[in-house]
């Protein structure tokens, strides 16, 4: 039983949010985020020291029931409480009470880093904080393009909102680099003086979050607003990266959302595939789970769940190892995020298609999963940006990520070959031009290849059942089958037969695997059973002629499948 298996059955989570207005959905997501946080009991100690409880929060299945709630929760607990906890435990003990208020949801926290006109070039942000003769600071947004982009800063639910706002520090006309400032944004009803929040339209296909553009018009901040000191540094960029270190934590933690995402998606799909019938060539009704077209994406997704669990465990251990270079730890987080998101997006898309028209509806969740994981791929480190940085550093031999524990395996050989090819390319001509022209477009594929190898190694070393490892391996091979054929390792026909053998070994264990994922209490999709569909059907608005009676429709094994 998971810590939230009872909470997910409460009225708070049984309410069908897709039928509510945007404002009502946003309020509901805040209530759910608070309920999840309190149920998990995350403390200042957990968020400061990154305990197992902190990491487990991100793979709890309840996190995928409301994408907006999980977004709010990770901002609140990781980016805001996590950043403030670091100061509270060292130079700013006065912040302890604020961190406690944030963890209890008595105060909403936001993290204002990215600017509309900067994107990944955030070190060169334009928001400024100028030291005044009084010791106060003047926080200002020079141009509309310099507004902080995305954080949901509009007033909600009468709860005061504070933010960690990053701005260039100016002292006596000299820029001393980006620094974090603690800023009051609103009191839950009205914005604070000089602070403007412009509500953006909702993102398509995902649970609505009040994303906004936030700007500051010469907002006066007290001296205590600065988190850190005024000292001029000779390592401004390194200091800046240190101040946003919780973003790297988020890369690994948010990427792990792929695990419960695939768990719930595969459970919904499996039950629908078992329920939905078609007439076979012999004239008898057959469940569509009997077709390879349904079995392949389903069992691949399930295999990835168990392998990614092993990868996440391995990644956490390495990320928490302070003996490793911090750049290596961040590189591991980038690899984990890249491969986790790759599997989640491919799996969600394939399973959603196998659901036919049902895969399009929000009440079945899979289309939302795809859109919400797109947001995750950008948040706390855009995967393409992380990949380009990691490949650049690897080719320049700035540092080395952990080597494979199975160096003779096909995935390790594939990874090594891709990097050898890239090294040869940039060594034979101008590094920058060759990198931009030939290597940059392949950076994400190269990092995903590292992630495949890491996941495979972790699964083998942690003794994940061999039939699941085999399924994972063949799926990873298929992402670049041409390389394996080109090198004479496998033929196309051999790859097909390897996949068939792995699938045949896993399929008889389907029920065992679904049970082991422990997500049944979290599934509210009405298509998983005839009973659930009938209960859902009764909630739908009915339009008919005034004198017509609406007949009770019989429960049917539907005749047409989407194959």
Question: Could you give a short description of this structure?
Answer:
The protein is α+β, with helices and mostly antiparallel strands. It is built from 21 helices and 11 strands.
Task: Describe, in plain words, how this protein is organized in 3D.
The chain is built from 21 helices and eleven strands. The protein has 563 residues and is an alpha+beta fold. The strands form three sheets. Strands 1, 2, 3, 5, 6 and 9 form a six-stranded mixed sheet that branches. A three-stranded antiparallel sheet has the order 4-8-7, with no helix packed on it. Strands 10-11 form a two-stranded antiparallel sheet. Helix 2 packs across helix 5 and helix 11 crosses helix 16. The relative contact order is 0.09. The C terminus is likely disordered.
List the defining traits of the structure above.
563 residues, three-stranded antiparallel sheet, alpha+beta, globular
Quaternary state of this entry equals single chain
| First-last Cα distance | 35 Å
Q: What is the alpha-carbon Rg in Å?
A: 25 Å
Task: Report the portion of residues in β strands.
Answer: 5-15%
Low-confidence stretches: 556-563
What's the total helix number? 21
Largest sheet: 6 strands, mixed
Count of DSSP strands: 11
Helix/strand class: alpha+beta
Estimate percent helicity: 40-55%
Whole-number mean pLDDT: 94
What is the 3D shape? globular
